[in-house]
Amino acid sequence: MSILAVANCPGCGKVFQRNLRNLCMDCIKSIDHEFDACYRFMLHNRKASTEQLRNATGVSKQRLTEWIKDKRLSVADFPSLTYPCNSCGSPIHQHNLCFPCSSRLSQDIRELQAKEAKKSAMGVGFYSLDRGRR
Fold first, then answer.
1. What's this model's pTM, rounded to 2 decimal places?
2. In sequence order, what are the residues at sequence separation of 6 or more whose Cβ sits closer than 8 angstroms to the Cβ of residue 34?
3. 5, 23, 21: which is closest to 13 by C-alpha?
4. How far apart are the first and last CA of the chain?
5. Contact 22, 7 (CB under 8 A)
6. CB under 8 Å to 79, separation ≥6 — which residues?
7. What pLDDT, in 10s, does the model give residues 55-81?
8. Could you report the per-residue pLDDT of 14-51, keeping only the tens digit for each?
């Protein structure tokens, strides 16, 4: 006799048998239906923006962002699809940060590494005022 692994669905709260998508079958069908609607819309409107897609299908911005990041909705096929940069919120097509935020972060890291190198070059210990008085 095996024990079934059950959980509450994060989408609707129903009890369901755990699966790879961690959703109940009703939520899985609903999400698949939303994706099909989005994909059909994009096939007929290849240059539609993310906002136009959201308005036409009613799918949440979060879900569209997830599909673009997972490459279910490919930016190569639909070049106007974007999602917000994790730092400043400007529209991007790939990765998590836009180029200016990525450059700024890299520069900040280089500056911190230089400060740490300067600290370690100074040595470890303390300076004593009594050192030469004997």
1. 0.75
2. 57, 59, 63
3. 23
4. 84
5. yes
6. 46, 47, 93
7. 999 999 999 999 999 999 999 999 999
8. 999 999 999 999 999 999 999 999 999 999 999 999 99
